[in-house]
Automatic annotation (TrEMBL):
A Pfam family hit: ABC_tran
EC number: 7.2.2.11
Domain ABC transporter positions: 4-245
Lineage of source species: Bacteria, Bacillati, Bacillota, Bacilli, Bacillales
Protein name per its UniProtKB record: Nickel import system ATP-binding protein NikD
Family: Belongs to the ABC transporter superfamily.
Record SUPFAM superfamilies: P-loop containing nucleoside triphosphate hydrolases (SSF52540)
Length: 307
């Protein structure tokens, strides 16, 4: 069963360029993604591709001036603002990208215990502190007394003790040492194996491939491909979209070939396929029409010429 289904999500922000001029910046365009119970879907894509906005849209914590369209469902029912409010922090849990999400006025131990189910909160908090190598005395500290790495581990701890049905981890590991990263990834896999649906946002494809079932590749605010993780192999022959293939080949352990050009800014999106200006196989149709999402070989792709 799909725990979460996002269809044709679009998000834009109005910007004022001068006193009288207003422009609309489309930051997410017709984005589709779904996550089943027990599944880890990793979202990979360059900075600014819309990964955090997707997380915030699901949780209902977008800025008030965001214009949102499309549909989002949770367990088959529309994800309304009221439902998001009831599920947030309970059935749906976030490991935020920024450590500023910690409550500055509450001791860390209490923050972690509050997100766990009541009867086993103290036990779970102690166990998770051990697991993430947080010294026992951290319990009594306030966020400002923690190093950046400790604060990040505390955020992870808060989300994993919740045993939420949907866990959204937004770049949970930067700055952590490799043993803790390994521990965090293993922990997310265990939670999925126990039935949680997990959205892992990262720009580290290699880390994602260690635990994810599917990889959703984001580009300029949309999903260009959703592929089984096993398709990321060899020279990328199994991948469907030219950007996913290029991203894969750009990794140092592969061919290390950079992708010329840059992701377009939301104020300058091209009229046709968003990847056309950088695509080596773009045709005239690509430059004038936007490809829709379609199923290809057990995955999804947004490209006219994918097979
Ligand atoms: N509150 C906001 N107002 C206007 N633009 C925003 C806002 N938040 C994000 N954006 C823009 O939306 C795009 C996607 O942002 P984000 O989801 O944070 O990217 P990612 O997490 O993939 O790095 C970026 O171009 C960013 O500048
Ligand atoms: S639709 Fe055309 S431009 Fe876009 S990725 Fe496919 S081939 Fe390239
Ligand atoms: Mg982000």
């Amino acid at each position: 069963m799909a725990i979460v289904e996002v269809e044709n999500l679009s998000i834009s922000f109005k910007r004022y360029t001068s006193r009288f001029k207003q422009v609309n910046h489309q930051v997410i365009s017709n984005l589709n993604v779904s996550i089943e119970a027990g599944e880890i879907v990793a979202v990979v894509g360059a900075s600014g591709s819309g990964k955090s906005l997707l997380a915030h849209a699901l949780l209902g914590i977008l800025p008030i001036h965001a214009n949102v369209s499309g549909t989002m469902t949770y367990k088959g029912e529309p994800l309304t603002a009221k439902r998001q409010g009831m599920l947030r922090g309970k059935e749906m849990s976030l490991v935020p990208q920024s450590v500023h999400f910690l409550d500055p006025l509450m001791k860390i131990g209490k923050q972690v215990r509050q997100s766990a189910k009541h009867h086993k909160a103290a036990f779970l908090q102690k166990k998770v502190f051990e697991r993430y190598r947080l010294p026992v005395k951290t319990e009594k500290l306030y966020p400002f007394q923690l190093s950046g790495g400790m604060a990040r581990r505390a955020l992870l701890a808060t989300a994993v003790v919740s045993e939420a049905e949907l866990i959204i981890a937004d770049e949970p590991t930067p700055g952590l040492d490799s043993a803790v990263i390994e521990e965090a990834l293993t922990n997310l896999r265990e939670l999925a194996d126990n039935g949680s649906a997990i959205l892992l946002i990262t720009h580290d494809i290699e880390a994602a491939l260690k635990i994810a079932d599917k990889i959703a590749v984001f580009y300029a605010g949309t999903t260009v491909e959703v592929a089984p993780a096993v398709d990321f192999t060899g020279k990328g022959e199994m991948l469907r979209h030219p950007y996913s293939k290029a991203l894969w080949r750009a990794l140092p352990q592969n061919e290390f070939i950079p992708i010329p050009g840059a992701q377009p800014h939301p104020s300058e999106l091209p009229p046709g396929c968003l990847f056309a200006p950088r695509c080596t196989i773009a045709t005239s149709k690509c430059r004038h029409e936007q490809p829709t999402n379609r199923a290809v070989r057990n995955g999804m792709v947004r490209c006219f010429h994918a097979t």
